[in-house]
């Protein structure tokens, strides 16, 4: 069986085009996580707060970030896909975030093959409402979990996302290569 974190390439042309492995679905409260030992997507928990994922959320293969997890990616989609789906995506922004004192940034991407996102190339192409909704979700989704606290720290452009992806690839190679 294919291990989507270890066996799948980071993308067809990283950092400009990446693969995103979907764990959590737009509009849902279920927090799925890819378990490389299964390998497969398992239900980690149901979000304690009454919020739902603003879009499909998962990780970038062959990446490892400063929080000691695969690098997180939120892919803006019109309709949810499914846990384990692999989306070819273009990073357009980086949302800086602190999760319980750890740097836990998120790449924001759009599907490469969805013409509705052809004009979304960089952070300034995202509407303020979209950025606000994403920030609000990540600031509040752990509020009702005892002892958990998150804070979004601002938005950066696609070049920052590219740099962060390359950093995550380097960390992956350093730890697992």
Record the SSE blueprint:
Blueprint: E1 18-24, E2 30-35, E3 40-46, E4 56-59, E5 72-75, E6 86-99, E7 102-103, E8 106-111, H1 128-140, E9 150-156, H2 158-176
| Number of alpha- plus pi-helical segments | 2
Give the termini distance in whole angstroms: 20 Å
How do the SSEs run, as a string of H and E? EEEEEEEEHEH
- Uncertain ranges: none
EC number: 3.6.1.1
Binding site for Mg(2+) 2: 72
Protein name: Inorganic pyrophosphatase
Keywords: Cytoplasm, Hydrolase, Magnesium, Metal-binding
Would you give an account of this structure?
This protein is an alpha+beta fold. It is built from 2 helices and 9 strands; from the N terminus they run ββββββββαβα. The chain has helices spanning 128-140, 158-176; strands at residues 18-24, 30-35, 40-46, 56-59, 72-75, 86-99, 102-103, 106-111, 150-156. A 5-stranded mixed beta barrel has the order 1-4-5-8-6. Strands 2-3 form a two-stranded antiparallel ribbon. A hairpin with a 4-residue loop joins strand 2 (30-35) and strand 3 (40-46). The longest helix has 19 residues, at 158-176. It starts with 17 loop residues before the first strand and ends with a helix. The mean pLDDT is 96.
């Amino acid at each position: 069986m294919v291990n989507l974190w270890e066996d799948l390439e980071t993308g067809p042309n990283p950092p400009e085009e990446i693969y995103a492995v979907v764990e959590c679905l737009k509009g849902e409260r279920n927090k799925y996580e890819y378990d490389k030992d299964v390998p497969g997507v398992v239900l980690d928990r149901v979000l304690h707060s009454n919020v739902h994922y603003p879009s499909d959320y998962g990780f970038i293969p062959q990446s490892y970030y400063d929080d000691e997890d695969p690098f997180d990616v939120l892919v803006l989609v019109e309709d949810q896909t499914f846990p384990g789906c692999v989306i070819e995506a273009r990073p357009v922004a980086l949302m800086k975030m602190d999760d319980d004192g750890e740097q836990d940034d998120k790449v924001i991407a759009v599907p490469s093959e969805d013409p509705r996102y052809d004009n979304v190339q960089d952070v300034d192409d995202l509407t303020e409402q979209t950025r606000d909704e994403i920030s609000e979700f990540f600031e509040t989704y752990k509020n009702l979990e005892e002892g958990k606290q998150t804070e979004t720290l601002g938005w950066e452009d696609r070049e920052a996302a590219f740099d962060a992806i390359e950093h995550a690839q380097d960390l992956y190679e350093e730890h697992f290569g």
